[in-house]
Amino acid sequence: MPPRTSITGFDRAKFVAAGGAPRNDPWWRNEQWRYSGPFTRWNRFKGAFPGLGLATGAFIIYLAYDAVVARPDHSHAESGHH
């Protein structure tokens, strides 16, 4: 029994084959600037959060300062003063 054809004439194999990139795309060369130099994926992502590195470093320094230097004095709780 041969494979069933579609009522609409749609051929899935032809559709999948046509979905690839064209072999001789005249605009390919003109589109390459979008994916090179300052427009690479990494460079676009890097510029998305302009102050994140500095803010993270400042927050880590603050946490270290708070843990080491700015410890609360708990000696008054043991002396009987409430």
Which sequence of SSEs, written as H and E, runs from N to C?
HHHHH
State the share of residues found in helices, binned by percent.
40-55%
- Mind summarizing the main beta sheet? none
Write down the Rg.
Answer: 32 Å
| End-to-end separation | 94 Å
Kindly state the mean pLDDT as a whole number? 79
Please report the total strand number as a whole number: 0
Count, helices: 5
pLDDT < 50 stretches? none
Helix/sheet category: mainly alpha
Tell me the strand percentage band. Answer: under 5%
Using the alpha-carbon principal axes, give the shape.
elongated
The multimeric state of the shown protein is single chain
Describe this structure in words.
It is a single-pass membrane protein. This is NADH-ubiquinone oxidoreductase B12 subunit. One of its GO terms (cellular component) is mitochondrial inner membrane. The chain crosses the membrane at residues 47-65. Pfam families: NDUF_B12 (PF08122). This protein has a domain at 25-70. The protein contains 5 helices and no strands. With 82 residues, it is mainly α. The chain has helices at 12-18, 28-31, 41-46, 52-68, 75-78. Helices cover 46% and strands 0% of the residues. The mean pLDDT is 79.
